[in-house]
Amino acid sequence: MTTAPAPAAPSTPLLSLTPLFARLKVTLLRNGLRQSNKRRAVFIASIVLVALLGALQLLGLAALRGTEHAAVLTVPLAVLLALGWAVVPLFFPGGDETLDPTRLAMLPLRPAPLVTALLVSSLIGIGPAFTVVILAGSVIATAHGAAAFAIAVPAVLLTLLVCVALTRAVATANVRLLSSRKGKDLALLSGVIIGVGAQLVNLALQKLSEAGLARLEPLADVTRWIPPGSALDAVRATSEGEYGLAAAELALTAAVLAMLMLWWQRTLTRVMTSPDSSTLVAAAKPEKERGAGTGLGRLLPAGRTGTAAQRQLRYAWRDPKIKTTWGSTLGIGVAIPIVNMVQGSHNLYFVSVAVIMLTGMMYNQLGQDGPAFWMVLQTIGSPRDALAELRGRALALALIAAPYLVVLVLGMAAVTGRWDQVPEVLGLSLAVLGAFLGTGAIASVQFPYSVPQDHAFKNIAPGQSGIAWLGTLWSLAGLAVCAPLIGLTIGLHLTGGHGLLWILLPLGAVYGPLAVWAGLRFAAPRMARRLPEILAAATKG
Amino acid sequence: MAVGREATAAAVRVEGLWKRFGEQVAVAGIDLEIPAGRFIGLVGPNGAGKTTTLSMVTGLLRPDSGLVEIAGHDVWADPAAAKSVIGVLPEGLRMFERLSGRELLAYTGRLRGLPGDEVDQRATQLLDVLDLAGAQHKLVVDYSTGMRKKIGLAAALLHNPEVLFLDEPFEGVDPVSAQSIRRVLERYTASGATVVFSSHVMELVESLCSWVAVLAAGRIRAHGPLEEVRGEAPTLQAAFLDLVGARGTSDGQELDWLGGVR
User: Fold this and answer.
1) From its phi and psi, is residue A242 left (phi > 0), alpha (psi between -120 and 50) or beta?
2) All domains of chain B, ordered by start, with CATH?
3) Which of B96, B108, B112 best probes binding to A when mutated, by most A CB atoms within 10 angstroms?
4) pTM over 0.80
C-alpha cells in the first residue's frame, strides 16, 4: 500500500467491469438451469408463480387508484419490501454465487467499480423483476398527472437500488456468520421463523380488512420518512403539488442509497482481507465439555440399544434439521388442541394431531443418517445387531413421545374437564404410537431416502420422491395394525358400551409395545440384508 | 489374534470383482491377493476405480459379482465375521458430525460391542497420540480436514482390527497431522497388522509402502512388492506413468509466452 506507481495490470475501468458482471450473472443463471431438467422446471414454475403473484398485486394496487388512502398502503409496502430484501440473505445464504465476495478476493479489482458492477448485476433476476412490478403498481395507484409519472421513474429506480444494495450490504456484513456452521444452522431454522412471520402478517391483514386502510395512516406518517418509503411518497406528493416535499424525499432516498453503498464497499474491503470463518473457528476458545455417558445417558440401557438411542437424542437437540422437526411437531401438537379448546371444542381426540406428527418421524430413520450411515453399517454383522440398532431409535423417539402424549392428554383433560375421555384417548394414543413405530421401522428399512442437509425446506433428495412416497403410503399399514383397537372404540361408542371404554387404556398400553416389538422383529433381518442398498439410498443427497 | 496373521496367509483375497454403474464399468474384473502384515498401496489416477474397489472390499457397496475374503472371512457371505476384523476410513469421511470427537469414539466403540470402560480408555489414548485431546469436546462438524482424518482413523482403530482400509488418508492433510497419522500407522503395521490405503501421491506410496497394486480403468495393471512394480524406472511415479500410459504428451511449446517478456 505504498505510493509506488500502479502495477502493470491495468485497473479495470468501470465501464467494462459492469457488463462483465452482468454477463457472469446471466451465465451462472443459465448454467444452473442447464444442470438438470428438474431445476429448469422449478425455475419456470417459480417464474410463472411470481408472474401470477406479481400480476395479482399489480391489479390489486391499480384498483386502489383514485382511493383516498392509496399512498397510505404503498409507502409502508415499499418499506416492507426493503425489509424483505434485507433478511433474504440471512435465510438463503449461498443462493447467489456472485453474492460471495470472497470468490473475487484474488482479482485485482478496486472496491468502488466492483461494488457498482455487483449492484448492477444484482438487478438481474426474478426478485428484482417482481419488485419492479409491485413498485409499478404502487405508482399506478398514487400518481396523478404527468409530473407525478415523471418523478415516479427515478423514485422506482431509487427504491429498487436501495432494496438491492441493502440485500448485498447485509449479506456482505454477515458473510462470516453466513459461511460458518452456526449461520447455516440458523438458516435451517428459518422455516420456523418464516412460519411464525407469515402468521403475524396474516393476523395483521385480517385486522386490516376489518378496520380498513385508514388504520394505516399513522404507520404511513412514519414510513414516509424511511427510505425507500420516502421515494414512493414523493410520487404522491408530486400528484398533490407538494414539489418541495417530493424533492426532499427523493434526496433523502438517494442519500441513504449512497450511505448503503459506502457501508457495503467498506465491509467488502474488510471481508476480502480478513480470515474466513474456518480459521476463526479453529482459533476459537475450547468448547464446553461434552461428557460421554453423563446425565440422561446413564439411564439408557447398556449396549447397542442405549448407544443408538443416546445418539438419536443428541441429534434431536444438535442437528438443526431434526431439531426443527421436533420443535414444530411438539409445538403444533400442543397448539392445535389449544386453538380448538379456545374455540370451545372440548374433545381430547385432538391429541391425534400430535400422535400422527410424532409417528411420522419414525418413517425414515436410517436415511436420515445420510452418508454417515456407513458407520452404522460397518458395525452391524447380524440381524441381532440390526434389531438393537432399530430398538435404540424407536426407544429414543418413544422416550420423548410417550411422556409428551401422556402430559398432553392429562393437561387437556384438566382444562376441559373431560376426564371421562382420558382412558380411551390415552390407550388409543399408545396403541397408534406403537403401531406406527413398528411399521415405521419397516419403512425405514424398505424405503430409505436422503434428507438434504443444506436446505431448510427440502426434505427429500432429488430423484427419491418416489421412494419417499412409498414410505408415506406404507403408513397405511400402521393404520391397519391399530385398526382393531380403533374398531373396538367405535364399536363401544355406537353400541352404547361407554362403561367399558376404560378397557382401552390397559389394552393400548399392551398393544402399543407389542406392535413395536413385532415391527422391529420383522424389520431387523431385512435391514441386515439390505445394508449396502440403504447406504446407497442415504448417500444420494 | 495370531490366527489370521501368519506371514503366508493373504490378508485380503479378491476374485473376479465387477461393478457397473449403468453403462459405465467402474471395476472390470479384479483378482488380487494382498499379503498380510505389510503396508499396501493401492494407486491409480482419478476415476480408476480405487474408491469403488475399496467400498466393495469393505462391505459398503454390493459388487455385481466376485468374491472378497478378509483374513479368511467372506465379506459378502459372512459379513459379521469380516466386519469385526476390519477398520475403515472411507473417502469423503462423512461421520456423525454433530457428535464431539470423544463422543464419536465412544459411540463407535460401543456399536462395535466393546465394554464402555475399555472404549473410553482407548479413546483417551488415541486422542492423545493423534493430538486431538485439545479438540475432543468440539463437534466434528467444526473440525478441519486433518482433524477429521485423524478422528476417522481413531474410530477405525478403536477395535484393534487386523486389516485397516484407508481411502486417501493424506488428502488435504497438513504435514503435522500427516506425520501423526503416519506414526500411528507405522506402529500399527509393526505389530503385524495390514494397512491398505489408496492414494495418487506416488512419493508418499513409495516412502510408506512395501507392496503396491496399480489400478487403471477398473483393472489391476501391476501388483507386487514395490521394487518389482518399480522395475527399471527411477521412481514409482515414472513406472506408474508408463503403466497407465500417460507420459508427457507435449513439452510445452505452446506456452512459450509463459515467463517471456512481460
Assistant:
1) beta
2) 7-85+162-172+189-245 (3.40.50.300), 96-160 (no CATH)
3) B96
4) no
